[in-house]
């Protein structure tokens, strides 16, 4: 069983994860519009992972006898100044998600909700990966700058990413 307060926090995280999926689909569409299909592939897969995260929270709420309440998802940005700006936005967004996860952990600790705290630890670890990959992408783009060949090389690298479903959180 979870408290009303915890249920509200978890439902809000479902919404935030779906928003993340929406944002990354939008960034992916931007990359398609500038013919960088490798970057588009990376973001499309990232969006799939975000839907997985949303459903992990969704399933957890159900599993502990809570009630899923889906909130409205904001429209994401759809136009970006540059490749670098889109990648910086991605990193900033992941940092925001990390703070959100940490906040729910704080609530779980306050409420002595050890089960939810345990469930959230998967996401604490995942956010380390999420921030690291967003940071690496940004730094690589900053490294090549406006060099077209460098961007195309990175695009080829991003095209290699394949979707792998997450290993389930407990
Ligand atoms: Fe669901 Fe990108 O963290």
UniProtKB/TrEMBL annotation:
Name of one Pfam family that matches: Ferritin
Residues annotated to bind Fe cation: 17, 50, 53, 94, 127
Entry's localization field: Cytoplasm
Alphabetical GO biological process terms: intracellular iron ion homeostasis; iron ion transport
Protein name: Ferritin
Similarity-based family: Belongs to the ferritin family. Prokaryotic subfamily.
Transmembrane segments: 21-43
Top-level taxonomic group: Bacteria
Record organism: Anaerobacterium chartisolvens
Single GO molecular function: ferrous iron binding
Function: Iron-storage protein.
Keywords: Cytoplasm, Iron, Iron storage, Membrane, Metal-binding, Oxidoreductase, Transmembrane, Transmembrane helix
Cellular compartments per GO CC: cytosol
Enzyme Commission designation: 1.16.3.2
InterPro entries, alphabetized: Ferritin, Ferritin-like, Ferritin-like_diiron, Ferritin-like_SF, Ferritin_DPS_dom, Ferritin_prok
Ranges for domain Ferritin-like diiron: 1-145
Catalytic activity, reaction form: 4 Fe(2+) + O2 + 6 H2O = 4 iron(III) oxide-hydroxide + 12 H(+)
């Amino acid at each position: 069983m979870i408290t009303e307060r915890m249920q509200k926090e978890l439902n809000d995280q479902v919404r935030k994860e779906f928003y993340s999926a929406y944002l990354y689909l939008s960034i992916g569409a931007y990359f398609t519009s500038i013919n960088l299909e490798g970057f588009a592939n990376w973001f499309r897969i990232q969006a799939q992972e975000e839907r997985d995260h949303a459903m992990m929270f969704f399933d957890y709420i159900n599993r502990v006898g809570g009630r899923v309440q889906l909130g409205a998802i904001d429209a994401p940005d759809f136009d970006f100044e540059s490749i670098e700006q889109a990648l910086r936005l991605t990193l900033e967004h992941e940092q925001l998600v990390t703070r959100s996860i940490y906040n729910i952990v704080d609530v779980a600790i306050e409420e002595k909700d050890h089960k939810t705290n345990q469930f959230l630890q998967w996401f604490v670890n995942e956010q380390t990966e999420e921030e690291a990959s967003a940071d690496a992408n940004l730094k690589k783009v900053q490294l090549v700058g406006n060099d077209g060949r460098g961007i195309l090389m990175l695009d080829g690298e991003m095209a290699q990413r394949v979707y792998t479903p997450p290993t389930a959180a407990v």
